Protein backbone atom coordinates (compact mmCIF):
# COMPACT_ATOMS: atom_id res chain seq x y z
CA UNK A 1 0.00 0.00 0.00
CA UNK A 2 2.83 2.34 0.79
CA UNK A 3 4.32 1.72 -2.65
CA UNK A 4 0.94 2.62 -4.25
CA UNK A 5 0.78 5.97 -2.50
CA UNK A 6 4.36 6.68 -3.44
CA UNK A 7 3.59 5.98 -7.10
CA UNK A 8 0.42 8.13 -6.84
CA UNK A 9 2.41 10.96 -5.30
CA UNK A 10 5.04 10.71 -8.00
CA UNK A 11 2.35 10.73 -10.72
CA UNK A 12 0.58 13.70 -9.12
CA UNK A 13 3.86 15.56 -8.81
CA UNK A 14 4.64 14.89 -12.46
CA UNK A 15 1.22 15.48 -14.01
CA UNK A 16 -0.80 17.32 -11.35
CA UNK A 17 0.12 20.78 -12.57
CA UNK A 18 -0.59 19.79 -16.18
CA UNK A 19 -4.00 18.40 -15.24
CA UNK A 20 -4.78 21.51 -13.21
CA UNK A 21 -3.64 23.76 -16.05
CA UNK A 22 -5.75 21.76 -18.55
CA UNK A 23 -8.82 22.09 -16.31
CA UNK A 24 -8.25 25.84 -16.00
CA UNK A 25 -7.77 26.19 -19.77
CA UNK A 26 -10.96 24.23 -20.46
CA UNK A 27 -13.04 26.11 -17.89
CA UNK A 28 -11.86 29.53 -19.04
CA UNK A 29 -12.29 28.43 -22.65
CA UNK A 30 -15.92 27.46 -22.07
CA UNK A 31 -16.58 30.85 -20.42
CA UNK A 32 -14.94 32.69 -23.31
CA UNK A 33 -16.84 30.57 -25.86
CA UNK A 34 -20.16 31.47 -24.27
CA UNK A 35 -19.20 35.14 -24.09
CA UNK A 36 -17.95 35.40 -27.66
CA UNK A 37 -20.84 33.43 -29.16
CA UNK A 38 -23.29 35.64 -27.29
CA UNK A 39 -21.54 38.75 -28.59
CA UNK A 40 -21.68 37.33 -32.12
CA UNK A 41 -25.44 36.80 -31.79
CA UNK A 42 -25.96 40.33 -30.46
CA UNK A 43 -23.94 41.79 -33.32
CA UNK A 44 -25.97 39.79 -35.83
CA UNK A 45 -29.25 40.99 -34.33
CA UNK A 46 -28.07 44.60 -34.37
CA UNK A 47 -27.21 44.12 -38.04
CA UNK A 48 -30.90 43.21 -38.55
CA UNK A 49 -30.11 39.63 -39.57
CA UNK A 50 -32.94 37.13 -39.33
CA UNK A 51 -33.32 35.55 -35.89
CA UNK A 52 -32.66 32.02 -37.11
CA UNK A 53 -29.37 33.12 -38.71
CA UNK A 54 -28.35 34.89 -35.50
CA UNK A 55 -29.13 31.79 -33.48
CA UNK A 56 -27.18 29.59 -35.88
CA UNK A 57 -24.21 31.97 -35.75
CA UNK A 58 -24.19 31.73 -31.96
CA UNK A 59 -24.36 27.93 -31.94
CA UNK A 60 -21.79 27.49 -34.72
CA UNK A 61 -19.30 29.87 -33.13
CA UNK A 62 -19.78 28.22 -29.73
CA UNK A 63 -19.20 24.70 -31.13
CA UNK A 64 -16.10 25.85 -33.04
CA UNK A 65 -14.62 27.53 -29.98
CA UNK A 66 -15.31 24.47 -27.81
CA UNK A 67 -13.38 22.26 -30.26
CA UNK A 68 -10.46 24.72 -30.20
CA UNK A 69 -10.53 24.82 -26.39
CA UNK A 70 -10.63 21.02 -26.14
CA UNK A 71 -7.62 20.66 -28.45
CA UNK A 72 -5.75 23.32 -26.46
CA UNK A 73 -6.50 21.51 -23.17
CA UNK A 74 -5.22 18.25 -24.61
CA UNK A 75 -2.07 20.04 -25.71
CA UNK A 76 -1.52 21.31 -22.17
CA UNK A 77 -1.73 17.70 -20.95
CA UNK A 78 1.06 16.83 -23.30
CA UNK A 79 -1.06 14.80 -25.70
CA UNK A 80 0.02 15.24 -29.37
CA UNK A 81 -2.73 17.23 -31.06
CA UNK A 82 -1.45 17.21 -34.65
CA UNK A 83 -3.12 13.88 -35.43
CA UNK A 84 -6.35 15.06 -33.78
CA UNK A 85 -6.40 18.21 -35.90
CA UNK A 86 -5.80 16.19 -39.06
CA UNK A 87 -8.61 13.81 -38.09
CA UNK A 88 -11.02 16.70 -37.49
CA UNK A 89 -10.05 18.30 -40.82
CA UNK A 90 -10.53 15.02 -42.69
CA UNK A 91 -13.93 14.46 -41.08
CA UNK A 92 -14.99 18.03 -41.97
CA UNK A 93 -13.88 17.52 -45.58
CA UNK A 94 -15.78 14.24 -45.88
CA UNK A 95 -18.94 15.77 -44.45
CA UNK A 96 -18.57 18.81 -46.73
CA UNK A 97 -18.32 16.64 -49.84
CA UNK A 98 -21.33 14.59 -48.77
CA UNK A 99 -23.57 17.61 -48.27
CA UNK A 100 -22.16 20.04 -50.83
CA UNK A 101 -25.66 20.74 -52.21
CA UNK A 102 -26.90 21.68 -48.76
CA UNK A 103 -23.78 23.74 -48.17
CA UNK A 104 -24.54 25.71 -51.36
CA UNK A 105 -28.02 26.45 -50.02
CA UNK A 106 -26.57 27.34 -46.64
CA UNK A 107 -24.02 29.74 -48.13
CA UNK A 108 -26.79 31.31 -50.21
CA UNK A 109 -28.88 31.65 -47.05
CA UNK A 110 -26.05 33.53 -45.34
CA UNK A 111 -25.75 35.74 -48.43
CA UNK A 112 -29.47 36.50 -48.38
CA UNK A 113 -29.27 37.36 -44.70
CA UNK A 114 -26.38 39.76 -45.26
CA UNK A 115 -27.66 41.43 -48.44
CA UNK A 116 -31.34 41.34 -47.42
CA UNK A 117 -32.92 41.72 -50.88
CA UNK A 118 -36.24 40.99 -49.16
CA UNK A 119 -37.62 40.33 -45.70
CA UNK A 120 -40.52 38.45 -44.18
CA UNK A 121 -43.80 40.00 -45.33
CA UNK A 122 -42.51 41.38 -48.64
CA UNK A 123 -44.32 40.60 -51.90
CA UNK A 124 -41.70 39.16 -54.25
CA UNK A 125 -41.34 37.27 -57.50
CA UNK A 126 -38.64 34.59 -57.41
CA UNK A 127 -38.03 31.98 -60.11
CA UNK A 128 -41.31 32.97 -61.81
CA UNK A 129 -43.17 32.51 -58.53
CA UNK A 130 -44.97 35.46 -56.93
CA UNK A 131 -46.11 35.62 -53.32
CA UNK A 132 -45.52 36.91 -49.81
CA UNK A 133 -42.33 35.87 -48.00
CA UNK A 134 -43.34 33.68 -45.06
CA UNK A 135 -39.97 32.44 -43.74
CA UNK A 136 -36.29 32.84 -44.58
CA UNK A 137 -34.50 29.70 -43.39
CA UNK A 138 -30.88 28.62 -43.50
CA UNK A 139 -31.38 26.39 -46.53
CA UNK A 140 -34.73 27.41 -48.02
CA UNK A 141 -37.12 30.35 -48.33
CA UNK A 142 -40.89 29.89 -48.05
CA UNK A 143 -43.39 32.09 -49.87
CA UNK A 144 -47.19 31.95 -49.93
CA UNK A 145 -48.90 32.69 -53.25
CA UNK A 146 -52.05 34.88 -53.48
CA UNK A 147 -54.18 31.70 -53.66
CA UNK A 148 -52.51 30.46 -50.45
CA UNK A 149 -50.19 27.87 -51.97
CA UNK A 150 -46.95 27.40 -50.04
CA UNK A 151 -43.80 27.27 -52.17
CA UNK A 152 -40.41 26.22 -50.76
CA UNK A 153 -37.48 27.50 -52.83
CA UNK A 154 -33.83 26.43 -52.23
CA UNK A 155 -31.72 29.46 -51.35
CA UNK A 156 -29.09 28.61 -53.97
CA UNK A 157 -31.74 28.96 -56.67
CA UNK A 158 -32.78 32.36 -55.32
CA UNK A 159 -29.27 33.81 -55.41
CA UNK A 160 -28.74 32.55 -58.96
CA UNK A 161 -31.82 34.27 -60.44
CA UNK A 162 -33.37 37.73 -60.51
CA UNK A 163 -35.52 38.87 -57.59
CA UNK A 164 -38.46 41.26 -58.01
CA UNK A 165 -39.46 42.96 -54.75
CA UNK A 166 -42.82 44.73 -55.05
CA UNK A 167 -42.84 45.99 -51.45
CA UNK A 168 -39.41 47.40 -50.67
CA UNK A 169 -39.93 50.83 -52.32
CA UNK A 170 -43.19 51.45 -50.51
CA UNK A 171 -45.14 52.68 -53.57
CA UNK A 172 -46.16 51.28 -56.94
CA UNK A 173 -47.69 52.59 -60.14
CA UNK A 174 -50.98 51.25 -61.40
CA UNK A 175 -51.28 50.80 -65.16
CA UNK A 176 -54.87 50.82 -66.40
CA UNK A 177 -56.27 51.21 -69.92
CA UNK A 178 -59.71 52.56 -70.92
CA UNK A 179 -61.18 52.82 -74.41
CA UNK A 180 -63.24 55.86 -75.44
CA UNK A 181 -65.13 56.38 -78.67
CA UNK A 182 -63.66 58.66 -81.34
CA UNK A 183 -66.91 60.64 -81.20
CA UNK A 184 -66.22 61.73 -77.59
CA UNK A 185 -64.24 64.82 -76.59
CA UNK A 186 -60.81 63.90 -75.31
CA UNK A 187 -60.61 66.62 -72.65
CA UNK A 188 -64.00 65.72 -71.21
CA UNK A 189 -63.15 62.03 -70.91
CA UNK A 190 -59.80 62.83 -69.33
CA UNK A 191 -61.44 65.22 -66.84
CA UNK A 192 -63.92 62.55 -65.73
CA UNK A 193 -61.16 60.00 -65.13
CA UNK A 194 -59.03 62.55 -63.22
CA UNK A 195 -62.00 63.36 -60.97
CA UNK A 196 -62.36 59.68 -60.07
CA UNK A 197 -58.68 59.51 -59.13
CA UNK A 198 -58.91 62.71 -57.08
CA UNK A 199 -61.89 61.37 -55.09
CA UNK A 200 -60.02 58.25 -53.94
CA UNK A 201 -57.77 58.96 -50.93
CA UNK A 202 -55.61 55.93 -51.72
CA UNK A 203 -54.30 57.60 -54.88
CA UNK A 204 -51.12 59.52 -54.05
CA UNK A 205 -50.84 63.18 -55.02
CA UNK A 206 -47.09 62.90 -55.46
CA UNK A 207 -46.12 61.65 -57.99
CA UNK A 208 -49.08 63.14 -59.82
CA UNK A 209 -51.39 60.67 -61.62
CA UNK A 210 -51.06 60.45 -65.39
CA UNK A 211 -54.07 60.24 -67.71
CA UNK A 212 -52.95 60.43 -71.33
CA UNK A 213 -53.70 59.01 -74.75
CA UNK A 214 -51.84 55.73 -75.03
CA UNK A 215 -52.84 54.77 -78.55
CA UNK A 216 -55.24 55.60 -81.36
CA UNK A 217 -56.73 52.18 -81.90
CA UNK A 218 -58.77 50.81 -84.77
CA UNK A 219 -62.09 51.48 -83.06
CA UNK A 220 -61.28 53.53 -79.95
CA UNK A 221 -59.02 56.08 -78.29
CA UNK A 222 -57.06 54.24 -75.61
CA UNK A 223 -56.31 56.16 -72.44
CA UNK A 224 -53.43 55.17 -70.17
CA UNK A 225 -54.38 55.74 -66.51
CA UNK A 226 -51.34 55.65 -64.21
CA UNK A 227 -51.87 56.63 -60.57
CA UNK A 228 -49.28 55.99 -57.83
CA UNK A 229 -50.39 54.07 -54.75
CA UNK A 230 -48.98 52.50 -51.61
CA UNK A 231 -47.78 48.97 -52.26
CA UNK A 232 -50.25 47.59 -49.72
CA UNK A 233 -53.20 49.17 -51.61
CA UNK A 234 -52.15 48.08 -55.10
CA UNK A 235 -54.45 45.18 -55.90
CA UNK A 236 -57.61 46.36 -54.13
CA UNK A 237 -57.31 49.84 -55.63
CA UNK A 238 -56.79 48.35 -59.08
CA UNK A 239 -60.07 46.46 -58.83
CA UNK A 240 -61.90 49.48 -57.36
CA UNK A 241 -60.67 51.96 -59.98
CA UNK A 242 -61.71 49.68 -62.82
CA UNK A 243 -65.23 49.73 -61.41
CA UNK A 244 -65.34 53.43 -60.44
CA UNK A 245 -64.00 54.75 -63.75
CA UNK A 246 -66.35 52.54 -65.77
CA UNK A 247 -69.32 53.78 -63.73
CA UNK A 248 -68.23 57.42 -64.08
CA UNK A 249 -67.93 57.11 -67.84
CA UNK A 250 -71.37 55.49 -68.05
CA UNK A 251 -72.97 58.17 -65.85
CA UNK A 252 -71.57 60.88 -68.12
CA UNK A 253 -72.67 59.01 -71.26
CA UNK A 254 -69.14 58.47 -72.53
CA UNK A 255 -69.27 55.67 -75.05
CA UNK A 256 -66.85 52.80 -74.56
CA UNK A 257 -66.70 51.04 -77.94
CA UNK A 258 -65.92 47.42 -78.48
CA UNK A 259 -64.34 45.91 -81.57
CA UNK A 260 -66.79 44.96 -84.31
CA UNK A 261 -66.52 43.92 -87.92
CA UNK A 262 -68.78 44.48 -90.92
CA UNK A 263 -68.75 41.89 -93.72
CA UNK A 264 -69.90 42.88 -97.22
CA UNK A 265 -70.59 40.02 -99.63
CA UNK A 266 -69.92 40.99 -103.27
CA UNK A 267 -71.31 39.18 -106.28
CA UNK A 268 -74.28 37.41 -104.73
CA UNK A 269 -77.97 38.21 -104.74
CA UNK A 270 -79.84 39.03 -101.52
CA UNK A 271 -82.16 36.09 -102.11
CA UNK A 272 -79.27 33.66 -101.80
CA UNK A 273 -78.67 34.84 -98.25
CA UNK A 274 -82.22 34.40 -97.00
CA UNK A 275 -82.51 32.12 -94.02
CA UNK A 276 -84.54 28.95 -94.53
CA UNK A 277 -86.43 27.23 -91.76
CA UNK A 278 -85.13 23.78 -90.92
CA UNK A 279 -87.07 20.84 -92.36
CA UNK A 280 -88.48 18.60 -89.68
CA UNK A 281 -88.53 14.88 -90.32
What do you see in this structure?
There is one protein chain. By secondary structure, the chain is an alpha+beta fold. It has 3 domains: 2-98, Orthogonal Bundle (Helix Hairpins), CATH 1.10.287.1260; 117-165, SH3 type barrels, CATH 2.30.30; 171-251, 2-Layer Sandwich (Alpha-Beta Plaits), CATH 3.30.70.100. The protein is built from 7 helices and 10 strands. The chain has helices at 2-46, 51-76, 82-98, 100-115, 155-159, 186-199, 234-251; strands spanning 123-126, 129-136, 140-144, 150-154, 163-165, 171-173, 176-180, 210-216, 221-226, 228-230. The protein has a 5-stranded antiparallel beta sheet. A 3-stranded antiparallel beta sheet has the order 7-9-8, covered by helices on one side. A hairpin with a 2-residue loop joins strand 1 and strand 2. The longest helix has 45 residues, at 2-46. The chain is elongated, with a radius of gyration of 37 Å. Mean pLDDT is 80; it is low at 272-281. It is a multi-pass membrane protein. Keywords: Cell membrane, Membrane, Transmembrane, Transmembrane helix.
Can you summarize the main beta sheet? Answer: 5 strands, antiparallel
* Gross geometry: elongated
What's the architecture of the largest domain in CATH terms?
Orthogonal Bundle
Q: What is the ordering of alpha helices and beta strands?
A: HHHHEEEEHEEEHEEEH
Q: Could you say what the CATH topology of the largest domain is called? A: Helix Hairpins
Radius of gyration: 37 Å
Name the beta content range. Answer: 15-25%
Q: What is the number of beta strands?
A: 10
Summed over residues and divided by their number, the pLDDT gives a mean of: 80
Number of helices: 7
Segments where pLDDT lies below 50 for 5+ residues? Answer: 272-281
Give the spatial strand order of the biggest sheet.
4-3-2-1-5
- Tell me the structural class: alpha+beta
